């Protein structure tokens, strides 16, 4: 099982109302290849990338309807070194209020 599948399972238990979409490598989820998890809750959208090595890149994305290409190819806002750290950060971002998504505080929220 790929590390991002494990993270998705834990996240579903932690925040059951979140919508999750996994994008795994075609070879069945080799832990050495990149995989992605899109997480949505109300108006919050978080993209998570996992590659070999156990770290997770986490980005809080702006509203895709207003800026469909915003956040693409810019690298993650934060790197979580462990699955536990990633779970805690994602859950806290999902539970944050709408003000977290304003451009002026986006990076401050993710840097916590």
Question: What do you see in this structure?
Answer:
With 112 residues, this protein is of the alpha+beta class. The protein has one domain (3-111). It contains three helices and five strands. The protein has a five-stranded antiparallel β-sheet with strand order 1-2-3-4-5. A hairpin with a 5-residue loop joins strand 3 and strand 4. The protein is globular, with a radius of gyration of 13 Å.
Key structural traits:
single chain; 112 residues; alpha+beta; 5-stranded antiparallel beta sheet; 5 strands; 30% helix; globular
Question: What's the layout of helices and strands?
Answer:
Layout: H1 3-14, E1 19-23, E2 35-41, E3 44-50, E4 56-61, E5 78-80, H2 83-95, H3 103-111
Antiparallel strand pairs: 1-2, 2-3, 3-4, 4-5
Helix pairs in contact: 1-2
Average predicted local confidence, pLDDT: 79
Helix content: 25-40%
How many domain regions? Answer: 1
Radius of gyration, in Å, reads 13 Å
Distinct helical segment count: 3
Précis, in short:
By secondary structure, this protein is α+β, with helices and mostly antiparallel strands. The chain is 30% helix and 25% strand.
